[in-house]
Amino acid sequence: MNRKEKVYNALGKLTQNILLKDLTENSDIGFDAETISAIAQVDRSNASRELNELAREGKAIKINGRPVKFLDRSHLEQIAKLDFENGYIFDTLNDFLKFFNTADTAEKEKIEKMSDPFDRIIGSRGSLALAIKQAKAAILYPPKGLHTLITGPTGVGKTTFAEMMYQYALYAGSIPNDAKLVIFNCSEYADNPQLILSQLFGHTKGAFTGAINEKAGLVEMSDRGILLLDEIHRLPPEAQEMLFLLMDKGIYRRLGETDKYRQATVLIIGATTENINSALLKTFLRRVPMTINLPSLEERPMEERMELIEEFLINEVNNVNVPVKVHKDVIRAFLQYNCTGNIGQLKGDIQLLCARGFLDYKTYGKKEIEININFLPEHVYTGLLNQEKSRNEIINLLRYEKDYYTFTPQDRENFLTVDNYDLSDNLYKEITDKYNHYFKIGYSGSSINEIISEDIEKYLKELMKKYNAEKELPVKEELFKIISPKVYNAAEMALTLAQQKLNRTFSTRAVIGLAMHISALIERISSGEIIYSEEINKIALNNPEEFRAAKLVREVLQQELEINIPKEEIGFLTMFLSTVDSDTSYKKIGVIVLAHGESTASSIANVANSLLGTDHCRAIDMPLDVKVEEILNKTIEKVKSIDEGKGVLLLVDMGSLIAFSEIITKKTNIPTKSIENISTPIVIEAVRKSLLPEMSLYTLVEDIKNANPYIGRMVSGEVINKADITEPKVILTTCISGKGAAVKIAQLLRNTLPFLDEYNVKIKPVDITEKVNQAGNKTLYEGTINDLIAVVGTVDLQLSGVPFIPIDELIIGDGIKKIEKSISGLNAGPYEKEEISGDSVFVKLLEGMLTFLDAKKAFKFVNDSYIMLVKMLGINDTRQLKTRYIFHNCCMIERLIQNDILPYSGIEKLIKEKRDIYEKVKYTLIDIEEAFGIKVPDTEIGYIMDIFDTQ
């Protein structure tokens, strides 16, 4: 039984308890994904995905709301004697119940097509609940409704809300089906009272100069319907007064008309951003009894903001009919940035972002629109720096976040998450997909094995983490508490035979990993959850020796455990044997830090080595008076001495040093790669990952780049000492519309090229309307043409020898790369790396590690607890101890906020034996618990006790 069948069976069992009377009387009918997942014993997110698929297939009835509810279609058809042709998706529970309360088939079809429009508004049961109640009361109030004012700042959706009031009036039957909603913006004619009266009420022939014909007004057009007066605060007093008769008695006159009154039944809705008491006549306000205030985006819950972001992205997907893949940090930025223009600005910013992604998609022929963090404009990107804003809400919203959120034209209700490293339920499919992908783009078999090796390694780590065996290999006494001795012995025997076949030695860790996998496999087989890819054994045939050994391993496991292992498992076992412990010498990628200054590189390397407990990171300091060639030769010798066969990563502080990599590889045949503009957190991350046995140089570089999307890529064809810049170089920006627009282009360049100050490069916007002196070398600035790097913008100044980069090439082409190349070939001025010392080291590094926690706040409270605990325990304060304590506890706080609690085997025994230490640790955590609203459980305290127990 696959996962979908399990979910469908659970839904059927639950629905069987529903009676016909429940469909007509029950105000809370249906079952949510969480309830169904518990019955089916399937992860909630997977259950939700399968339920939506069942609804699309017509097997389930879906009732939208919070939460979304589901019912089994076949059971409903049986008890209600109805025929659902394609399966129905209802907008609200009321619509669903109305369906069963309506006997006439035609009426059912009408209800199916029409539902309460307010239920489709995001926030209808949240921040807009009161406003919607007021709106419905205004529409339904007998006999003709209540005139209404809608207030709120720009962009909150006042016009949209008024349109929903009109739709609701149609839905409720308060106005005829052919009644109109007429919208008039009062600001368009605010300076001409006579014209505004004519627009509203119409005029007779000759009523004023230019009135050559009679004309009906908007009041007449909106008779029996609704007239929306947008920006009503711009309505002049005489126009407000002329509305009195219409509002009081339902009569009015056209402009210039004196002999008769006309009749009209019009519900007036006004929308304004202003204080109504100061903008409108008191006599007018007395005639408008209902005022509805719409909240700003800032005042609305973060959950609703997430829904708005999702809805706007789906709208853009359907506009272009192309899937859009959005990086998680882009979503987080939209959740946190200061969106002063409210919903209107949020929608506009998302549209602009999608437009830029669409240009990229068309320009480079991509299969989907991919939106990464580097696409964000500065005002949105600052949201990622807003550490104080609704942190807990955001982490809850993104609790199941992956690297990307993917939106497709076919899915208007739910978004999918993409995670290239999720091997839990789709282990075999992931291996197959990755193999096919890398094979298709030309990777060698050994390279593919290296990549898949990383996935196998991660899978084994997840298994060990599940059983709390990740940190170190447990002794057998402890191991047998989490793995059956029978399974462990079978795995050990199987790998012993595999060793003989392959002439290799497998570690104890490999035995434990295989035993845990087999334990999990047995559980999956018994529950029917395992799904294999048909191609995995085809992949396995690329490793014939391991494939033969895997068949033997399967036979041994089947005999020893007396179980039937599917033959498709041979594929995984082949990959396991091919990759696990594949490098018994445990070769590592070398890491060298190169930085200008007397001791900058050494300081950074020492911090990384100290925190990671290693001496793996090497340093080469580059004093400003030393020639680049000398440093290059020194680097070559260092690369030769540390290379273990997997290559060397160079972490450099300036772009010109990036050329070292290519030169060294050519001279030594040792693979090297460079990453520039490095910082201490980047070095720590690079060193940490370089020590992983499964890591390749290519993957390491990609990981570091992906983790730091704003690291500039500056490639220089030659190594040039930058220590001689004294005069600034200049980039001119131009725009056909004048200097103001050129300033905007200059700002774009400053945001895109953060290293300009390092290279002493200035950006000067120019006004092309000013005259340029063509007689000499001087242009619009004090300097020569030789000082110019480029002209960027929409107007080519045609300066001899100065490249012109059009604005479109700057945004979607190679313009940035051209500028980078020009800059990196310049001589640079003195450069000094920022020195970090004392406790700021911890804060700096925590900022790079913590996902959402405020690094400064976390460090303060954790450091205070450390100082207190060291004194209470009477032990020596060492940097190593402090480092372990600070980083462990800060990460612990983040985990506990997310309700991710680590287990600790034997915690009761530990507390009993070391009650005094336990009480002291617990006491020092009180301030942390209060500051972050968490409760530190005993299992977590056990790990803190272990930190001090190892000293």
Automatic annotation (TrEMBL):
Keywords on this record? ATP-binding, Kinase, Nucleotide-binding, Transferase
InterPro entries cross-referenced by the UniProt entry? AAA+_ATPase, P-loop_NTPase, PRD, PRD_sf, PTS_EIIA_man-typ, PTS_EIIA_man-typ_sf, PTS_IIA_man, Sigma_54_int
Q: Does the keyword ATP-binding apply?
A: yes
Limits of the PRD domain = 482-587, 853-951
A cellular component term, taken from the record's GO annotations: membrane
Q: Which Pfam families match?
A: EIIA-man, PRD, Sigma54_activat
A Gene Ontology biological process in which this protein takes part is: regulation of DNA-templated transcription
One GO MF term, please? ATP binding
Annotated Sigma-54 factor interaction domain ranges read 121-355
**Keyword match Nucleotide-binding:** yes
The chain positions of domain PTS EIIA type-4 read: 588-711
Instruction: Output this protein's name.
Output: Transcriptional regulatory protein LevR
Protein species of origin? Tepidanaerobacter syntrophicus
